[in-house]
Structures are given as structure tokens and as C-alpha cells.
Design a protein that fits this description.
Elements lengths: L4 H14 L10 H10 L5 E5 H9 L7 H7 L1 H14 L14 H18 L9 H4 L3 E5 L6 E3 L11 E11 L3 E11 L5 E5 L14 H4 L7 E3 L5 E11 L13 E7 L11 E11 L4 H6 L4 E11 L11 H11 L4 H7 L9 H12 L4 E2 L5 E2 L5 E5 L5 H11 L3 E5 L5 H4 L1 E5 L6 E5 L1 H4 L4 E5 L6 H4 L1 H7 L2 E6 L2 E6 L3 E6 L12 H5 L3 H4 L4 E5 L5 H17 L12 H11 L11 H18 L9 H17 L7 H13 L2 H7 L8 H19 L1
Parallel strand pairs: 1-2, 3-4, 9-11, 14-21, 14-22, 15-18, 18-21
Antiparallel strand pairs: 4-8, 4-10, 5-6, 5-7, 5-8, 8-9, 10-11, 12-13, 16-17, 19-20
Helix pairs in contact: 1-5, 4-5, 11-12, 23-24
């Protein structure tokens, strides 16, 4: 049975005119939208398919209409636009309202049409698309399931689909020709041609009566001022790593974004995209190679971010009430930290450091343009099996914007930026790496010690200046990489060798080591009581599927994210009376390092002083305070000391009590040194 588009248009008009909200207001939702569009206050008509499903259930004969719309979404988007044109109310002029250039051009075109009709000449038909000042978008309904990129098949062509993916490349916004205006240079006649698709063949002969009487007809040329252009952007979306089957590589889709949806996505965003799955046949020389095989793309209709950024979170009254409830609890700082990965046993101070990493310090921009970073960098270095990677994974899911990568699988170009060729224009463009994708977020780098030295040097500029300088393929620019780095690494010998010095175990260059605000050393020290408690915790998690009770209800990830978002709105400063206290504490740390000599457990520079300030500011933010207190400074100094406390616990042990694995490493290392000294 062939579809009856004329009756379907009447259904669309009936829906737009009569649908009213279910709430107490009972207002006509779509009539209000049309009034705003007519008064130049809105540029989009968003049809919520959930409203359409609810409306069609109450009217006989409309039950299958939502499924019909979803299966032929592009055609019904134009039908809804035509229906809106038919019932569009007249514009209500205010005192300050003025006609823009588009209104003046439309009035001039209509006047020319009237004059041509009076002279019994051919009148240029104005397309409806040219008069239209809005675009129709479909929002997903309740029956549309969120799918993966891999599950979209050829049977979905023409259908409205919703899928989840990660934006890997976002192109520039460019003008796309929607209606071409062709003007005759002989008689001045204008003809309008609607452009459907990526290519069009312009009319090459003037159809006016004046030119038809002359032997050499006038030549038509494109008049850009009278044509209609819309905003166009191309986005590359890749499926998430957890959706990729074993042994496969991630798949990607090209998404075309038009109108008001442009500039709503950034590289690295995890989004749910609703759009129409369409084919794109090859043209020109490429068609001879590909034959009947066509590329596919998604014409975006709605974009929803899975995790909103800190600055994009809107706090409602109920959310603020819940946040105040958490804020007024005793030991709020400890409860927030324990709510991070509660299934991981222990590591109380490590979780507090990760909480401060999420909160961050205050970024200062001085008058002369110097920028002092506020992001906190943390490196977790320790023995295998102390849950370093699990903590990194949890922070990745907790932070609104984060990127997870590994040291062995990352190169310097993959971390900073690479040169790619734009598929639309063919020009050389920059594609950001992991550190650029994590701008205003967190970049988690696992197996940090496995990176090549040449690749590791690419991080130096990012960690301090928070920029990426590029000079490749004729492109010289600087990209922002305002990200906090959370790294996890193993010691030089695979596990920490107590007989060797800390510098030999850490085996990282001093230039990189000084850039970390906290270098947390985690040793797997054997102890009967701690080992039994750890085993009981792990067994409970495997048996019950949840961690044991903490004595309080852990704060949910969404609530913790909202608490941190509100805390980041504060900009605390260090009072003058604390200056001498912080300076003396820093000088004492430097003196202790000099006294320790080769047994020094860290590398203290002037950057350590800035680390103390950043940690103190993050603690003040967690208190929702505008000023740093002495307790914040003491807690920051305590965390710096606790980051090396596991070394102090084993410093007094007798070397004869080493376990067999450590003894094997020591014998192998001693034999290597002896062989080297012999030659």
C-alpha cells in the first residue's frame, strides 16, 4: 500500500495545533513554538516523538503513525515543515523590532514577482525552503533504543536511529548552499533552485520571456547574496572501547550536523546522537572505482551529552538541598574520598589525593599574560596488584571529561596532535591527541613507565604550560591542553627494591618528576592482619556483588560529580598571615632532603611550593570556602608526607628478610653491575 502523504500532512497539522502538555498548565506546546519562530525568537521546531506517541494513542487510526515517521524520517521532516508553514501565525511586531536583511530581500522578491505577473511574463517561484526560517528536528521517543555504532545495519537506512559514541574529530563550521539564486546577465531575471544532496547541476538557460525572444540568450550566474546558506559541520564519531568486541577494531560513523546543532560537540565528548541513517553514493571519478557501493552517514537530529561538564551542570533546588546535606555532615572530606571506588580496599589517603585531583586548584592569569596552572598532577607508582589501574578506570568514569590511554600503546603524536587530511576540503588539518581531547578534564595514562623516552618528553610542555606547540606540514600553532594528568607506573625493577635508592626505583627524569604535585609510592607490604582484611573484603565483593558497609551510605557518582562541580565555582586565596608558615614549611622540606642525601625519598623544587598551594586551594574548595586556612595547609603537607610513608615503614627492615622474588632481582642486578664493571 502506497503512503498517502497528503493525509499524513493533515495529521501533522492536527498534531501541531491540538497537542497540549500533560502537566497542569495544559499549554499548547507546539503552537507556542510556532509563535516564537514567527517572532524571530526561535530557529528550530523540535518534534518530540514521545509526545507524538502519546498523542497517537488517544486517537483512532493514528496508532502506527509514530513508527511510520521513524521509518521514513527525512520525508516526514519535510512534511512537518510544510505543515508548520501552513499554520504559521503572523508576526507580532514590537516597538524595537526591525526587519533584517532577509525580510527586505523577501519583500523585494515578492514585489518583483507581482510586477512580472502583471506583465504576463514567467514568474520566478520562491521555494518554501527559501521562505522558511526554521529547521525541523526529531527528538527520540521512548521506543527508540540506544544502540552502538556496530549495531547500525543496512536495514536501518532511512530510519531514525539513536546510538552512543565518542567524538574523535570535529570539523569547522562551513556554509552549505541550500537554495541557489541564479541571475541572468541579459534580462536580470532571477530563478531559484533548491539544492538536494551534496551536488547539483545549475540551470544553464534563462527561462524568461525576454530571453526566449532573443537568439543569444543571457548567461546565468550564481548570486550568493540572494542565495540561502545554512551552517554545516562534519563530525567523526567512534564507538566506545567497552562496545568493541574482542579482537575487533573500533568502528566510526560520519555525522553531518546542520543549523543550530553545530558547535554542540567537542573532541572527546561521549554523546548520544539521534539522526537519520542515509547513504551517500560516490560521484565523479570515485564512482568508477566503487561502483554501486555507497558510503553512509548520519544526519543529526538531536545530541545529548552523557556526562555534562562542570561548567554545564545546572543545579536545581533539590540538588542544592542534597549537596548541603552532604556538606554539613561530619568528616565530609573523608566520606567523599571513601565514596571513590568503595570496592577497592584501603588506600584512604590515595583516594583523598584523587579527590583533590578532581577538584583542582585555582588557575591564575597574571596581568603580563603569565598563566599559573591550577590542575593537580598525580603519579601512582607501586608494586603490581595494588589496584592502580582500577583507580584510574574509576576516575575515568567519575570525571565529566576524561581520556584513558596506556604508555605502551601511545606515541608522542597520539598524545599531542597529528596531521590529517580533511575529507571535505582535502586540506591538511590538526587532529588532537589524548591530552588535547582531555582539555578541561583528566588524562589517565596507565603503564607510564613503559613509554619511550622520546614519547614521554611530549608531556613536559603539557604538564606545566598546558599547551601543545605544533610546527608540522606548514602548520604552526598552539593548542590548549588544560588537563590534569593521572599516571600509574611500576618501579624500575618491576616491583620496589628496598635495597636500591628511591631514585633508582622511580627511574623517571627529574624534569618530569618535579612536574607531578604528588608522587605516590604504594608498596605491597606483607602483614597478617592487613592481608586477612584485604582477603575478606575481596571475598565479600565477589560473593555479594557490592563492597562491605563503610558505616555510611556511599555518595553516588552523580552526587559526587555535582558536589565537585559546585566546589569548583569557588576561587580561594591564600591570606597574608599564612605566607610565613608556608614558606618555613617549604624550607624545612628542602632541608630534610639535603640531610637525607642519597636516601632522599623525593625531589623538591620550587614547583613543590606551588603544589602545596594547589592542594591547599583544592581543600578550601571542598569546604566551599573563599580563603585557605592553616588546616588546609597542614593537610596538604600531610598528604605530601604520606605519599612516601610506605618507604619509611620498610626502611628499618633487615635486608636478610627479603622475600625470594626480591632476592632474585637483587642477585640479577648485582651480576649485571659486576659484568659491566669488568669491561
Amino acid at each position: 500500500m502506497l503512503p498517502d502523504y497528503k493525509s499524513d500532512k493533515e495529521r501533522c497539522i492536527f498534531f501541531l495545533k491540538t497537542y497540549s502538555c500533560v502537566d497542569e498548565s495544559g499549554r499548547r506546546k507546539y503552537e507556542d513554538m510556532l509563535v516564537d519562530i514567527s517572532n524571530r525568537k526561535r530557529e528550530s521546531l523540535e518534534i518530540d516523538l514521545a509526545d507524538l506517541e502519546e498523542f497517537c494513542l488517544t486517537i483512532e487510526g493514528y496508532e502506527n503513525f509514530p513508527e511510520i515517521v521513524q521509518s521514513n524520517a527525512r520525508r516526514y521532516a519535510s512534511i512537518f515543515a510544510e505543515a508548520a508553514d501552513d499554520i504559521m501565525p503572523r508576526r507580532i511586531f514590537g516597538i524595537s523590532d526591525e526587519d533584517d536583511s532577509f525580510d527586505v530581500l523577501m519583500r523585494q522578491r515578492e514585489q518583483i514577482g507581482v510586477e512580472i505577473n502583471a506583465s504576463k511574463n514567467v514568474s520566478p517561484e520562491l521555494p518554501d525552503v527559501l521562505r522558511r526560517r526554521f529547521r525541523v528536528y526529531f527528538k527520540p521517543g521512548t521506543k527508540i533504543a540506544v544502540r552502538t555504532v556496530r549495531s547500525i545495519r543496512a536495514a536501518d537506512i532511512g530510519h531514525l536511529v539513536t546510538f552512543t559514541g565518542v567524538c574523535t574529530r570535529v570539523g569547522d563550521v562551513k556554509p552549505l548552499l541550500e537554495v541557489a539564486c541564479l541571475t541572468c546577465d541579459g534580462c536580470g531575471f532571477e530563478i531559484y533552485q533548491e539544492v538536494i544532496g551534496d551536488n547539483f547541476n545549475p540551470i544553464n538557460r534563462c527561462p524568461s520571456g525576454a530571453c526566449s525572444l532573443r537568439a543569444p540568450t543571457g548567461e546565468l550566474f550564481l548570486e550568493t547574496r540572494a542565495s540561502k546558506f545554512i551552517k554545516f559541520q562534519e563530525v567523526k564519531v567512534q564507538e566506545r572501547s567497552e562496545d568493541v568486541p574482542v579482537g575487533h577494531i573500533p568502528r566510526s560513523l560520519t555525522v553531518q550536523v546542520k543549523g543550530g546543532l553545530t558547535r554542540t560537540m567537542r573532541p572527546g565528548d561521549v554523546v548520544d546522537i539521534t539522526g537519520i541513517f542515509l547513504p551517500k553514493p560516490s560521484t565523479g571519478f570515485k564512482a568508477r572505482q566503487t561502483g554501486l557501493v555507497a558510503d553512509t552517514f548520519i544526519e543529526a537530529m538531536a545530541v545529548k551529552h552523557q556526562k555534562a561538564g562542570y561548567s554545564d551542570m545546572l543545579m536545581s533546588a533539590d540538588n542544592m538541598t542534597n549537596l548541603w546535606h552532604h556538606h554539613q555532615q561530619l568528616d565530609m572530606y573523608g566520606k567523599l574520598a571513601q565514596s571513590i571506588a568503595p570496592e577497592i580496599y584501603g588506600h584512604a589517603d590515595v583516594k583523598k589525593a584523587l579527590l583533590l585531583l578532581l577538584c583542582g586548584g585555582v588557575t591564575r592569569e597574571l596581568r603580563d599574560g603569565i598563566r599559573i596552572r591550577g590542575d593537580i598532577h598525580v603519579c601512582l607508582m607501586g608494586d603490581p596488584g595494588v589496584a592502580k589501574s582500577q583507580l584510574l578506570k574509576h576516575i575515568t568514569t567519575l570525571a565529566p571529561r576524561s581520556v584513558y590511554t596506556t604508555g605502551r600503546g601511545s606515541s608522542g603524536v597520539g598524545l599531542t596532535a597529528s596531521i590529517q587530511r580533511d575529507t571535505v576540503t582535502g586540506e591538511m588539518i590538526l587532529e588532537g591527541g589524548a591530552l588535547v581531547l582531555a582539555d578541561h578534564g583528566i588524562c589517565c595514562i596507565d603503564e607510564f613507565d613503559k613509554m619511550e623516552d622520546s614519547d614521554r618528553t611530549a608531556i613536559h610542555e603539557v604538564m606545566e604550560q598546558q599547551t601543545v606547540s605544533i610546527a608540522k606540514a606548514g602548520i604552526t600553532t598552539t593548542l590548549n591542553a588544560r588537563t590534569a594528568v593521572l599516571a600509574a607506573a611500576n618501579p624500575a625493577y618491576g616491583r620496589y627494591n628496598i635495597a636500591a635508592s628511591p631514585q633508582e626505583n622511580i627511574n623517571l627524569p627529574a624534569a618530569l618528576l618535579s612536574r607531578f604535585d604528588l608522587m605516590w609510592l604504594i608498596l605491597d607490604v606483607a602483614g597478617s592482619e592487613s592481608d586477612v582484611a584485604l582477603a575478606q573484603h575481596v571475598l565479600h565483593v565477589h560473593r555479594e556483588g557490592k563492597p562491605p558497609g563503610l558505616g555510611f551510605e556511599p555518595i553516588a557518582a552523580s552526587q559526587l560529580r555535582a558536589y565537585v562541580a559546585h566546589a569548583r565555582t569557588f576561587s580561594p586565596h591564600v591570606p597574608v598571615e599564612l605566607s610565613n608558615y608556608i614558606a618555613s614549611a617549604y624550607a624545612e622540606i628542602r632541608q630534610d632532603e639535603i640531610d637525607a642525601g642519597e636516601k632522599a625519598m623525593g625531589y623538591t623544587t620550587a614547583r613543590t611550593l606551588l603544589s602545596i598551594l594547589r592542594l591547599s586551594e583544592a581543600l578550601a574548595r571542598l569546604r566551599w570556602a573563599d580563603q585557605v586556612s592553616e588546616g588546609d595547609v597542614n593537610e596538604a603537607l600531610r598528604l605530601i608526607k604520606m605519599s612516601k610513608i610506605s618507604l619509611e615503614d620498610t626502611a628499618g627492615d633487615d635486608t636478610s628478610k627479603f622475600d625470594p622474588i626480591t632476592a632474585i632481582y637483587m642477585v640479577r642486578e648485582d651480576s649485571t653491575i659486576a659484568d659491566t664493571s669488568f669491561f
